Amino acid sequence: MFYSSFGILAILVHIIINYDVLIKNDYRDVMPASSSYRQFLIGILIYYVSDICWGLLYEHRLIVLTYADTVLYFLSMVVSVLLWSRYVTEYLDESSLFSRTIRSVGMVILMYEIINLIINFFRPVVFSFSEDGTYQPMTARYVTLAIQIVFYLCTSLYSLYTAVRGVGVTRRHHRTVGLCGVTMVAFIILQAYDPFLPFYAIGCMLGTCLLHTFVLEDEKAERKKHLEELLHKEKTQREELEAARHKAYTDSLTGVKSKHAYLEAEMVLDEKIACDEKGSFGLIVFDLNGLKTINDTLGHEAGDQYIKDGCALICRTFVHSPVFRIGGDEFVVILEGRDYNNRNGLISDFDRQVHENIINGKVIVSSGMDEYRPGMDDRVQSVFERADRQMYEHKKYLKKLTARSSSQLDHFTP
Fold it and tell me: Based on the domain organization, do 44 and 148 belong to the same domain?
């Protein structure tokens, strides 16, 4: 029982620390070489089971069963070496002579042991049992362990050397392989020295613990890197989307909201009206007087400045409301909240400024306002059409007023 107790401890530790890989298999999509790593851990698990059974059967001198389990013991040992060699080549992710060699050596060790175990049925070369049931290791057993020592030692030296010279992922991967290999070398030597103590199982337990620690660290680092890349990509996409949205929803000439923005705002208001959720609001429609004349006589650069001046006049008056440019010289303001409650005063202030501009030969802006009428208006367009008609009436009035003043063109200085 003393011998088997180490194997029982090893198998418990093995299952506990590798539960997510062995049972849940959570890391199959993110961990390096996850499939071969899981196969290697299963191989080690089978080895632990055979080692535990060997201790129990040998203690009770069940020689036939012990013989069969000893065959399984050696087979599971060399199979774990083969699975280790496959995992290492995938984990290091390199196509080199080293990778091809250790993969081939792992297969050679397995074939060598199978041949020895077949021969052992006819002539003991690996192990035997005396008449009183005492286990007796043979030469081939020591050769097998010696081959493994050389295999793990060469793997460790190469990996540690590469780790010293490497950086980043390459360094972490080779360091992991190197440390695990050194651990196995130490305990295989001890196992060769004393076949009745479970040094090989202890070496596997410590090696897989080290492997778990560094593989998990590597997996966390890769996840962190992947997450940072995703966050950076998402941030870049969000910034590009915001930039595109800003460009689409902002008028390039005046800096106020564009026609696209107005159509979206209109759609939102229509949805609220349809759900009977919209309170009070009003629309003011604006149109610049004399823009065509300025474009034809002074040029489009002067016309653009005229549009900017008209927009600035609107924005200065309706500070708390969104301003939209929906056409060449057409603007709309949606009145809500404070500006809606003070709409009559704001319109008066705006008209007073327009009258001063007529006298001073500055920008002239016609305006028309109307309010949402619950129960009557089923969409924003109805309010817009009434405001637009009032704007045109106001436009006619301003034209007559301008005609009585000095020529706008003579006084306007862009």
Answer: yes
